[in-house]
Specification:
The chain has helices spanning about 15-25, 30-40, 55-70, 130-150, 190-195, 205-215, 270-280, 290-295, 300-325, 335-345, 375-385, and strands at about 45, 70-80, 85-90, 95-105, 110-115, 120-125, 155-165, 165-170, 175, 200-205, 225-230, 235-240, 245, 330-335, 355, 355-360, 365. It is of the alpha/beta class. The longest helix is centred in the C-terminal third of the chain and has 23 residues, at about 300-325. Residues about 1-25 have low confidence and may be disordered.
Length: about 400
C-alpha cells in the first residue's frame, strides 16, 4: 500500500512521530519489550518485568501479543532458582526485513537486513549516481531481484532507510549534497522513494547512518556513547549517545565540518581534497571508491596531506570531546584502513592537567566494520523507528 504525505511547508517534516505512529504496527510499550529482547536475546520471560516500569501481568500480555503478531519466538524452558520454570524469548529473525540504501559521490550500496539485524545481502552497485531518477529505478530493479532470490515477500518489508552524502537545508529539510551529487540537491527524495517503492521511507545523511551501523555491529558493541567521523568526498559526522543516534533539531547533529571557516574548508580531512593533492603529485585516482581499494600510504603527497589536515582533524576531535563527552571517536565512512592508521598516529592537541589528573579522553579508533557501513545503518532505520527505540 502506498503512503501519501502532505508536503505543507508548515508541517515539521523532520518530526517523525505522526509518520511512525501511522506506519508502525506496535505500541510504545511493545517497542520497549522488543528492544529489551533485542539487546538480551534468549532472555527468560520472567526476567523482563524487572527491566520495565510495567506490571508483570502487563508484560505477559504484551509478550503474548507480540508472539501472536509473529515478532517473537519462544525458546527452551529454563529452571531459575526456586521459581517456576520460564521460557526464553528471542526475536523472530524472519518476522521483518528492511532495505538500506546509501548514495555516495561515485557509488551506491544496498543492504537488506532481517529482524535481528543480520545482513542478508549487501552489494555495491555498478552505478554512477549522477541522475537521481535513473539511479533510483536501477536500485528498485536490484532490490526486487534480491527479494526474489531470497524468497522474501514484500509484505515482510518494514520499510526503506535512505542515506545520502550531504546535510539537510531549508524549511522542507531537503538534502544539500556535495557537487558531484548536484542532481540530488533540493529534491523531495523521501516522497520520490515512497512513490517508487510504495513503502515507508526514512532519510538521514550518510554520516548518521554510518554511525547507526557502527552502533549496531561495530564499536557500539563496546561503547554506548561515541562520535563517528565519516570520511567521504566531504567530511561529516554522527553522534550516538547511550546507544541511540542523535539527529538534532534540523537533522544535522554531528555535521562537524561546520566548525571550519570557508578558508579552512579545503584543509579539512575530506577525501575529495586528498584526491586533489594526489593529482597535483601525478597520482591519478579517479574517485573515492578507487582510493579506498587501492590506497598506498607511500604515494607522494599523502604524508604532506596528513600534516596539512592534522590541526583541523584535532579541532573536530576536540569539539566532540568537549560537547558529547564520548567514550570513543570512530574514524569511518569510506576511509581506507591504511590511511586511517596514519590519521590515528596524528599527535593529539595538548590537554590541561588540573590537580595532576587529566580529564578522561576518548579512545580514537578506526571503524570495526569493513567498508562503508552507511547502507547497513540505513537498513536499521525502519526497524529502529517502528519496532525498537
Amino acid at each position: 500500500m502506498g503512503i501519501s504525505m502532505s508536503r505543507n511547508p508548515g508541517i515539521d517534516r523532520f518530526s517523525e512521530r505522526n509518520f511512525i505512529e501511522n506506519t508502525a504496527c506496535v505500541s510504545a510499550n511493545e517497542r520497549m519489550i522488543l528492544e529489551i529482547i533485542r539487546r538480551n536475546s534468549g532472555i527468560m520471560r520472567s526476567s523482563i518485568t524487572a527491566l520495565t516500569n510495567l506490571t508483570q501481568s502487563s508484560v505477559h500480555r504484551i509478550i503474548d501479543s507480540l508472539i501472536e503478531k509473529g515478532l517473537l519466538t519462544m525458546g527452551d524452558t529454563v529452571v531459575h532458582g526456586r521459581g517456576k520454570p520460564s521460557r526464553t524469548l528471542s526475536l523472530d529473525e524472519k518476522a521483518r526485513y528492511s532495505i538500506g540504501i546509501s548514495v555516495n559521490t561515485d557509488c551506491v550500496a544496498v543492504a537488506i537486513c532481517n529482524f535481528i539485524g543480520d545482513v542478508v545481502d549487501y552489494q555495491i552497485l555498478a552505478i554512477q549516481p549522477t541522475d537521481y531518477a535513473r539511479t533510483l529505478l536501477k536500485i528498485k530493479e536490484h532490490v526486487l531481484e534480491v527479494l526474489s532470490q531470497y524468497c522474501i515477500s514484500q509484505t515482510k518489508i518494514a520499510g526503506i532507510g535512505f542515506g545520502l552524502a550531504g546535510y539537510f537545508v531549508g524549511p522542507e529539510h531537503y538534502f544539500s549534497p556535495p557537487e558531484p551529487l548536484s542532481n540530488w540537491a533540493l529534491v523531495d527524495l523521501r516522497h520520490e522513494i515512497m512513490t517508487l517503492f510504495e513503502m515507508p521511507v526514512w532519510t538521514e545523511n550518510n554520516a548518521t547512518t554510518g554511525a547507526i551501523g557502527e552502533a549496531f555491529l561495530g564499536a557500539g558493541l563496546e561503547f554506548s556513547t561515541f562520535g563517528y567521523f565519516s570520511f567521504n568526498y566531504g567530511f561529516g559526522g554522527g553522534i550516538v549517545i547511550d546507544g541511540k543516534p542523535i539527529r538534532g533539531a534540523f537533522g544535522n547533529a554531528g555535521e562537524i565540518s561546520r566548525v571550519y571557516t570557508q578558508q579552512e574548508g579545503p584543509h579539512r580531512p575530506a577525501l575529495g581534497e586528498l584526491l586533489k593533492r594526489l593529482r597535483m603529485n601525478g597520482i591519478e585516482v579517479p574517485n573515492i571508491s578507487t582510493l579506498r581499494t587501492e590506497f598506498n600510504p607511500d604515494w607522494p603527497g599523502v604524508a604532506a596531506w596528513v600534516d596539512e589536515i592534522a590541526p583541523q582533524l584535532n579541532r573536530a576531535i576536540d569539539a566532540l570531546y568537549a560537547v558529547i563527552d564520548p567514550e570513543a571517536i570512530v574514524f569511518g565512512g569510506e576511509l581506507p584502513k591504511k590511511l586511517g592508521e596514519l590519521l590515528l598516529a596524528v599527535p593529539p592537541s595538548p590537554r590541561e592537567h588540573r590537580w595532576g589528573y587529566p580529564a578522561s579522553y576518548p579512545r580514537i579508533i578506526n571503524s570495526r566494520l569493513e567498508g562503508d557501513c552507511a547502507a547497513i545503518g540505513a537498513a536499521f532505520l525502519p526497524l529502529i523507528y517502528q519496532y525498537f527505540m
